[in-house]
Amino acid sequence: MDDKANYITPTGHRKILDEIDQLVRVERPKIVQEVSDAAAQGDRSENAEYIYGKKKLREIDRRLRFLQGRLAHIVVVDPSTPRGQIIFFGATVDVEDEDGECLTWQIVGVDEVDPARGKISWRSPIGRSLLRRKVGDTVSFQKPEGARVEYTVLDVRYE
Asked: Is-above-0.90 flag for pTM?
């Protein structure tokens, strides 16, 4: 996988596009109107509504630049495309740890990470160690706090 590409699932891509749309069509025009109304009140140097509104506009514009920069390098990968039993980007993987606990993760892009929902980045230590593995393989990696953990791959699917 290309380290410079921003791999993402269609769902993650849609979320970024929706956020951009929300910022451009709803949030920014609302704040522009608030700033305009505050500016019409007179002295801008001591007008808290004007100062706060300008700050909010800068934050929205910064977020838009960030999201548009992310879009420039996006490679959308459909996880429903079958790729056999080898783990690639988009795979949903069932693993078992040393204690017999079963976990399920989907390997997604960095913009989609949500550990509570089982979505891990392909760039994370566990994500990288799982790539190109298959059912029956055992992977070992070191957690950020230092503990070494082993997982056995039980199932690989593309949903």
From this structure: no
Assign 64 to helix, strand or coil: helix
Task: Report the alpha-carbon distance of residue 15 to residue 34 in Å, rounded.
Answer: 27
- The whole-angstrom distance between residue 134's C-alpha and the CA centroid of its chain comes to 25
Q: Considering only CA atoms, which of 141, 158, 157 is closest in space to residue 78?
A: 158
The domain locations on the chain are 6-76, 92-157
At 114-155, the pLDDT tens digits run 999 999 999 998 999 999 999 999 999 887 788 888 999 999
**What is the per-residue pLDDT for 2?**
56
Tell me how far apart the alpha carbons of residues 143 and 118 are, in angstroms, rounded to a whole number.
16
User: CB within 8 A of 21, min separation 6: which ones?
Assistant: none
CATH code for the structural domain at 92-157: 3.10.50.30
Non-local CB neighbours of 124 within 8 Å, separated by 6+ positions: 113
Q: Which CATH number fits domain 6-76: 1.10.150.80, 3.40.50.2000, 3.40.50.800, 1.10.287.180?
A: 1.10.287.180
Task: Give pLDDT, residue 39.
Answer: 85
Tokens 């989609």 belong to which residue?
112
